[in-house]
Amino acid sequence: MTESMHDPHIVKSYDQDLEAIQALIMKMGGLVEVAILEAATSLENRDEELAERVRANDKAIDALEEKVNEEAARLLARRQPSAGDLRTVLTVMKISANLERIGDYSKNMAKRTGVLLQMTPIDGSSGAIRRMAKAVEKMLKDALDAYIQRDAELAQDVRMRDLEVDQMYNALFRTFLTYMMEDPRNITGCMHLHFIAKNIERMGDHVTSIAEQVIYLVTGQLPEDDRPKADRTAIDAPGVDA
Amino acid sequence: MTESMHDPHIVKSYDQDLEAIQALIMKMGGLVEVAILEAATSLENRDEELAERVRANDKAIDALEEKVNEEAARLLARRQPSAGDLRTVLTVMKISANLERIGDYSKNMAKRTGVLLQMTPIDGSSGAIRRMAKAVEKMLKDALDAYIQRDAELAQDVRMRDLEVDQMYNALFRTFLTYMMEDPRNITGCMHLHFIAKNIERMGDHVTSIAEQVIYLVTGQLPEDDRPKADRTAIDAPGVDA
């Protein structure tokens, strides 16, 4: 209906604009992957310098999200995309919002490094936290690959793997309760560790949301709400009888 | 440059489109205000039916966010707005994303009602939680008023009030630590209550983000990063010597 739909030059420009935005998303994704791993490492090694770097790098992630939003809005305003292209641009904006949130959670996680330095260490907790963070980072990597390759199957796989992250969180929650009940000196440290574990579990939710956006993009439909949820701490009250 | 800038009929349509989206935002805001208060009430009165209603209503909030995004994208695609109008549309999308998150936090809060029924009650905690939720709900109401009236001063006031919410959170954090150290039977309940208090504190952050968007919209600048932050649990480790 509009001129742009019949002018190959303008259509090409739309694709170029979109590619430029996708490049920003990939850059953001790379920074967020690093943030997740570095936040976990800063906690494990009690490395305050590294924690500070995670916090500083989060500003770059935020700036990229701003840029994605601006570029996407400009693209929509200039190119008047069709329904399918409109969907792609909206997906890109949602993915960047999810990435920004994951970056924020990484920053909040890194922030606890200084506090944990003052606490009684909890046996095995940093290893468990690191494994959880690593699982989420791997999910994110695959979700971004699924996006670039428009691979709904891989996205579905990522979505299902969030269950494992939820299970890791539940196991940690129970462990922390046990430690706190055993010795009140563990309470403050465990409160902070629980906060961190919950942050990682939420990162997993945001990665899942990215995977769902990819599925929507490829199939035109959001997955049915049948994903097994395993943060059961709100339902089962684990540890009550621990 | 484009036809739309010189055709009063089309310009009027842009305003009408924008007003329609703003009406959706206000509807969303109303639902989220109710969700915050009802979630706190469901916890205080241990009312599982009300908690269930909060969870069900969250679907309506999510659907409204979808609609805001679609309408905003359609508006951008059709009307090719100028820089200022582009900023308004982006702001609207960000506000709706913030509202959706606050709705989610309310839902998560309400979800804990069932668990808390099984726990040893913690003296004074439901009142404190309710006051905190009430403060955030009032902030949200004012932030939305500031948006409609393009009132940067009111938005700035909202932004500053988040400090009080952070202080309420810090006080609760210390109270919970004390209760847990006094009696291990309080530990599980306090873990859930801490989770709830942290959720409300995060809602306050999202309301602050809405207020900042309003300031950006009116003044063209985001406020300087000088807001006093009072969630000091990541820095001070309160309760270490409690």
Task: Give me a quick take on this structure.
Helices cover about 80% and strands about 0% of the residues of chain A.
User: How many extended strands of chain A?
Assistant: 0
| Largest protein-protein interface | A-B, 42 and 41 residues
Radius of gyration of chain A: 20 Å
Order of helices and strands of chain A: HHHHHHHH
Helix content of chain A: over 70%
Please outline the major beta sheet of chain A: none
Number of helices of chain A: 8
Morphology of chain A = elongated
Unreliable spans of chain A are 1-5, 235-242
Would you mind describing this structure in some detail?
Two copies of one chain form a homodimer. With 242 residues, chain A is an all-alpha fold. Helices cover 81% and strands 0% of the residues of chain A. Chain A has helices spanning 8-44, 48-79, 83-111, 113-117, 125-148, 152-182, 187-219, 233-236. The termini of chain A are far apart.
Write the layout of secondary structure elements.
Two copies of one chain form a homodimer.
Chain A: H1 8-44, H2 48-79, H3 83-111, H4 113-117, H5 125-148, H6 152-182, H7 187-219, H8 233-236
Helix pairs in contact in A: 1-2, 1-3, 1-5, 2-3, 3-7, 5-6, 5-7, 6-7
Keywords:
homodimer; 242 residues; mainly alpha; 8 helices; disordered N terminus; disordered C terminus
